[in-house]
Each structure stands twice: as C-alpha cells, then as structure tokens.
Amino acid sequence: MAYEALDFYDVDSLLTEEERMVRDMVRDWVDEEVIPNIEIACRDGVFPDEWRVALGEMGVLGAPLKGYDCPGLSYTAYGVICRELERGDSGLRSFASVQGSLAMYPIWDFGSEEQKNHYLPKMASGEWIGCFGLTEPDYGSNPGDMITKAEDMGDHYLLNGAKMWITNGSIAELAIVWAKLDGVIRGFIVEKNDPGFSAPEMKGKHSLKASVTSELVFQDCKIPKDRMLPGVKGLRGPFSCLNNARFGISWGALGSAQACFDSAKDYAMSRIQFNHPIASYQLVQNKLSWMLREITKGQLLAYHLGQKKDAGTWIPEHISLAKMNNVDIALEIARVARDIHGANGILDEYPIMRHMANLESVKTYEGTHDIHNLIIGRHITGIQAFTREA
Amino acid sequence: MNFTIIAETNGDALHPTTYQLVRAAANMGSNSTVICPNGIGADEAAKINGVDKVISATGDCFNIFDGGAWASAISPICGDITLISASPNGREIGSRIAAIKDIPIIQDIVSMTEGVTVTRPIYSGKAMESLTISGNAVITLRPNAFEAALTGNDAPISVVNQSADVKIAIQEAIDKASERLDVTEADIIISGGRGMGTIDNFSHLEEIADTIGAAVGASRAVVDEWGMPHRMQVGQTGKTVTPSLYIAVGISGAIQHLAGMRSSKYILAINKDPDAPIFAVADYGVVATWEEAIPALKTALSELQ
Amino acid sequence: MNITVLLKQVPDTTAKITISNGKVDENSVSKWSMSPYDEYALESGLQLKEATGGNLVAITCGPERTKKMLTDAAAVGADTLVHISDDGVTDSTHVQQLLAAAVKKYDSHVVLCGKQAADTNAGSTGPGVAELIDAACITLVSEVNHSEGNFLTIRPSNSGTEKVMVSGLSVFAFDKGTSELRRPNVRGIMMAKKKPIEAISSSDLGVNLSSSNVKLNSQNPPPEKPAGQKFEGAEHINEVVSKLRNEANVI
Fold it and tell me: What is the β-pairing status of strands C136-141 and C170-174?
C-alpha cells in the first residue's frame, strides 16, 4: 500500500524529479521490506543482512559522494534517503549514516587515490561495511582529549586504546579510527583482520536494537603505513564527518516523527471511547495539531539546510540547529503519540515505543542535544561554554 | 435498435449470467437474438423469455478459446447493440468485436436504461460513471448486477457455421495447484480467531475457502498462541487487506485486528457474543457459534457455485 | 526483437477519489502510479529483452503528467519512451487506434500490457489493439517466454492453467505475473532522467479520430452502503449469503 507522507506545506514539491524518484524507491522498499520485519529484527537484536544488500543494490550508500562508483546525488537527496529509512527505523538510518558519512566520506575527502580506489567502490555496493571510531569510554562530548594513540614503528603503525558506542563495529570490514600520533589526531583505516584488533558487540540495549553497536579494542594493533588518511590532521577530520552525518540525522528524525504521527492519527480515528473516536476530542486534536506543526517546521528547516549544503553556503552551526531541533521534536512527538495510543502505545504492534527508545539514542549521539545548544550559544555570544578551562 | 447477446457458458450449459443479459435487453423493451458459440446451451437459450431467436454458431474455431478467432466468427452476425458478460472471455471478445466494427465498447456496466444510458463502476468501485451511447456499441454486463430472465419461451434455433483463423495453440494443460491464495491477493478472505476454539477447527474455514476461492486469514491471538504462519495474520502487525468480502469468524475485533481489515469492501462477522466490537464494523453480522454457522455457510455457498 | 509495453498512469489504488460537480477531481489525486498489471507487463518485457536482446519501447497515451511514469519505466530499463498526447480522448476505441498506430510505427514484434487498468478496470486495450494490428491476443497471462520463434505463455483455464503457444505479432495482457517486480536503483534513475521522451500526436501517427459516440453524463460517489445488519442465529445464514450475492454483489 503506497505510503502517503504528511507534507502539509508541499515541501517535497520543491525536490527535483530525481530526488523524488529516489524518495519513492527508498520509501517503497521500506514499506515492503523493512516495516514488516523490523519488530522481529529488534526482538532478535540483529541488523538483517538483506538490508545491507538492498541498500547496496539501490545504490544509496554514500549518497552525496561523487566518483569511485559512488551515487553522486545531492545532499538534499541524501537527506531524503535518511528520512525515508528512519521512518522504518533509526537503526537502519544509523547504518546508512555511518557507512556513508562516517566511513566512506573520510576516505573520499581525506584518503589517498589508492585508498579511494580500493575501498569506495566496494563500500558503495554494500559489499564492505565501514564503521567510525571516535568516542571512547571516557571521552564522549570531549573527543579532543582522546587517549587512543598511534606510534610510528618505521614500517608500520601500532595502535593502542579503545573506542565505544561504535555502530556497525562487529559487522564492519573496516574501521575509520581516530587516534593521536605524536599528540595530533589522525585518521587510520583499520581492517577487521588486523592483528591486535577486536570489535566485541555491546549487548543489552533498550534502543537501536536492530543496529549493531560495538567496542573497538586495539592492543598493539599493527597496521601498514599506507592506512593513514593523508589529507587531514586534528579534530577537523572527525568533525567534517560528523557534520555530514548530523545533516542526515536532521532529516532522519522527521521520518521517525512521521511514523509516530501516522500511527497516532490512525489510532485516534479508530479508537472509540465514550461512543466517539478519540480524534473527535479537543485534547487529542490539540496533540495532533501540535505534531503537524512541529513536523512541518522541521521539514522546512531540513529542506532549507539541504539547499544550503548543496550550495556550499552552510556553517556547522546551521547543522547543529537542525539536528538538535528535529531530534528533539521527534522524541517529543513519539512521547505524545504514545500518550494518544494509551496502553496500546507500549505494544510492539505499534511503532511508537521503538521510535521513542531509538530517538533517546539519536538525541545523544553525534553531538548531544546540550552540546549542540552550546555550539549555538558560542555562535551567538562568541563565548565557548564547553569547558571552564581554556 | 436490436440487441444481440453472446451467451456465456459454463461447461456444457449456459452460465446464469446469460439469463441476466436477456433480462437487461428485455428491460429496454427489446427482444434479443442469442448467439451460442459452439452451439453450447442453444436449446436452453431458446426457452428464455425475451429471446426472439437463437443462433447456434458452430465451427472448428470454437474448439479452443482464441478471442480473436471467436470475435471474427461472431461479429458478422451481431446486431446494433451487443451484450456480453463482463467475464474475462466476454471482455476480450467484446473488445475485439468493437474494434472490428469500429464502435464503442463499454465494459462492466451495472445498470442500463433508455438512451442508451449505462452506469459502470470506476476506480474499483470508488466512483460510478454514467455514460450515454448513441449508435451501435458493445456492452459488457457485470455478472449478478441484473436480474435473471424467466423461462417458458420456445424461440427458433438456427445453426450458422462460421470459420475463423485460430492463431494460438494449447501446448499443455496444467492442473490447478492446490496452493491457497495469499491474504493480500484474495478477493475474499475468511479469517478465524480465538472463538474457533482450536487450531484444528481451521480446517472448516479452509473447506469454505476452497469452495469459493478465498484465502484463509487469522487474528494475531491465534497466530501467536497456536503457532500459525505469520503470513496469515491480518491486523496491525500482520497484513493490511482490502478484499471485496472479509468473513470474520470467532474474531472479537480488537482495534489491532480492525486496523488490518476495516477497509474491506464488505464485512461479514460471525460471533457468538452479540456485543463483540467486530459487529460495529460489519455490514452483515450473524450472532451464532461457528459450530452452528459454518456448516450452514458451507451449504449456502456451495449451492451458489 | 522490438518489445512494446503499453502503460497507463492511474491514481494509486490506495489514493482517495474525490468527486466535485459530477466529475472525479483529478487534481485532488495524491499519487499517480503505473497501473499495477502494467507493472507486470513491463517486468515481463524487460525479461524478454534480457533473454532475446532488443529494444523495449514504453508507450503511453495520456496527459502531460504521464511522462513521469515513462521516466519511471526508464529507471528500470525501458529503452525508448513514447508519449502520445491524448488531447482529452477518453473513448477507449480511440485510444486503441492511437496505440495501435504507435505499435506499428515502432515496428513492434510483441506487445505487452496489463489485463485492465486500475481506473476503468475495463480490459479493452489489449484485445482491441490486437484486432487493429491483426495480432493474436492472449489475456490474463502470468508469464511470457520466447523460444525458437514462438511465444509461450501461461493463462488460466477451467481446470487450472494452460500453456499456450503463439507465433508472429502477438499481444499479451497481463494478470499478476509470476516474477517479482524489479526495483529501480540510483544509477537507473540518473540515466532515466536524461532519457528523452518522444512526444507524438494523433496527426504524427496519421490517425483521424472520429467524434465519439459515448457521452460522459456524470461521475458520482458509489451508492451508500446500507447500515450494518445484524441477525440473531445461524438460521439466517442463507438470507445473509443471498444478500452478499444480490445486495453486496461480492460472491
């Protein structure tokens, strides 16, 4: 059954025909293959391998990257893809975000020609999965103080340290690992069979259950010299990746919000209490109206940001605002949707609790809500408020 | 204006639709000529009130169904307005005849009045369209939308031998696979819920499904508790279905079940609890246990076949 | 082999149909899609092309909006896209004449279409076009294969299905096919976007359409369903079954 998205201001009519065709392709796939299977995947705590294959076949991985067999779409198209995937599940969108923005992008932007030719085609086709190691057990919002380090041993590098909360870690063929070499942050490509590298899965999540989350452990991990990304030094490397991923999240969260809105609307229309559908009561209409209002504003924000990204007129603070706002409203919409569903809202027959629990992670990862607030705060005042030192 | 009817047959006899075609013409104040392809049902057709004459169209071309050959054999003996059943074969022959004669074809009408003015459903019944046809035309009629003509007549039968070029050849007949339809494909679904008592009792629903070519569905409760295949599950986390007819047996109608089937065109609910919520969405409700209702339903449906 | 697929764009089968002033309001249709049975015809055409080589021509007759559907067809592999502007033609006999002329213009060896379109649900196009191009037509088929100059297809029969052989120019009208429909991918979409659509008119095709003898009076919402009827006891089953046949017309 064709999905009709809430698009109160016809924002999608601003997309190019190509962007709309990509949207419909991903949307249909999500309806046919993801939504009917997502609850089982969550219950089993697995990311279905068929989804990796399908994303590769559709050709959406690394959407905005050009050349090296990458799709070469617009950033707006990338946003649309994220939105459609996340209407299915945030874990699915996370998979695509990590593969495209956090693993393929740094190779594409900072890698050597050999690295690009070697890795990107197989990553675009979905054959090789990548992951991204920045966060450490003790360094989340403050990655600059990371302790993972690389030593130049002459004919190879030696990596020591640990990364945590790594999406796709245990299913990845390669990891983009950020580590300090002589005190300077550098990016390294670590392959899964490199000696001294392991990626144990983290179990027991109540959120993003259909997504693989892992630790990356480096114990005298030996990697060849040609695996360092030559093109970037310092935090600019990981932050460039994160900007792209956060851009995708700002669209993706709207997908979750729409799924919750759709379910709440359907439920309110069919649930009879006191002889009438609860949708006919003012308190419920107020909630639905608020949801529509926030989703519509979020759509305009995401679309305009997409245009700025494609035009190259964006600054990181633009992305912070959109990520912060759209995840925030999506999470609140999920909570209100749960309320409208009453007790039924806690069942896995409805997508509500799944999206709600997922969005708790999305609010925290890729720059927490509060950190994005501080980024905006610094932009307004010129005063950084992250740390009391400095 | 004269009416020609191309008889719809079923094996060696007339299909009940043929009587409806004659009645539809009679309602327009016109007797009709009935053409019986391959001579099938000619004697029977002669007895239908409102038939002026019967033409038994014979010839080798009628031995297998090739719409092109049939149309080319039949069209020379058709009059101003040709009526055919809107069955798949009827639609095909009708389209061909209209193309041969360069006249309009109107398919699947459900009413016909002076003018000639007809109505037909469009957009799968989401709207009705009224059309007026001037001049000659081919019109196909939806089965069971018109009343049947009565019998008692004794119209003359003439035999016309026709020939036409058959362009197709049957290579192999393949017997119907015993596989039952999937709930998402079927036009009729019969679903059971906890009220069926045990999983074994689903065999009664399966028998009915086989009689009428329906799919068998189930509520989540029985899929979970009795381990039935998930593909049978209709509802919020199962399949969303929109058949012409949904028969719910022993299903109380939890909101999650209704979410999957409430868009069905017609709903028949059978439940022993008169207050079951399923009755609120049912077009037809029968308050009875499945043990009482299912045998009666089976008999009534097989009598229709 | 030149493979022609006839496609029609219809309101998506899940879309709401709104009627205003006695006419279906096409502007209110939220989504237009390729008619579902046509999708199976297209899929089968793509498979025939892969098996035998050749060129797949996708033809539609309709207003401007239908060009989008041709681009969708190109995204999964249609080679040539042909748009016949319909100039408001609705009489199916006229549409058949335009389509038949286009089938000839593109020198087709085989024509595939859906058994009926999801708007009128009529089913006139396949057999009608076949008559006009003097071709065999087999309807309600689920697959078509090509072998040693013949087409082999499967259609329903009284006892199940039958395999039917036909040679020469043929029309196949598809029911739901046995193959899964292929999905487009980004590469296909980007190529489709660049593919030109050949726009032709009735005069380009040399077709002189006579005036139609069919006049549309009005389009209306379906009659309201009667309120739900509830019967106490299994003895009413017979009555309910006869209502299902005569009132609801569903069995």
Answer: parallel
Residues of A with a catalytic annotation lie at 366
Tell me the CATH number at B25: 3.40.50.620
B173 domain residue, yes or no? no
Sequential pLDDT tens for chain B (305 residues): 899 999 999 889 999 999 999 999 999 999 999 999 999 999 999 999 999 999 999 999 999 999 999 999 999 999 999 999 999 999 999 999 999 999 999 999 999 999 899 999 999 888 999 999 999 999 999 988 899 999 999 999 999 999 999 999 999 998 776 567 889 888 999 999 999 999 999 999 999 998 888 999 999 999 999 999 988 999 998 898 989 999 999 999 999 999 999 989 999 999 999 999 999 999 999 999 999 999 999 999 988 86
Residues 6+ apart with CB under 8 A from C197: C67, C70, C71, C81, C82, C83
Do B46 and B139 share a domain, yes or no? yes
CB spacing of C193 vs A17 below 8 angstroms: yes
Q: Which CATH superfamily is domain A11-124 in?
A: Acyl-CoA dehydrogenase/oxidase, N-terminal domain (1.10.540.10)
Q: Which residues contact C51 (CB under 8 A, 6 or more apart)?
A: C145, C146
Q: In this structure, which topology does domain A236-381 adopt according to CATH?
A: Butyryl-CoA Dehydrogenase, subunit A; domain 3 (1.20.140)
A4/C185 CB distance under 8 A: no
Residues of C within 8 A of B132 (CB-CB) are 214-215, 217
Residue ranges, comma separated, of all CATH 1.20.140.10 domains in chain A are 236-381
For C217, which of B103, B117, B293 is closest by C-beta distance? B117
List Cβ neighbours of C237 (8 Å cut-off, separation of 6 or more): B286, B288, B293, B296, B297, B300
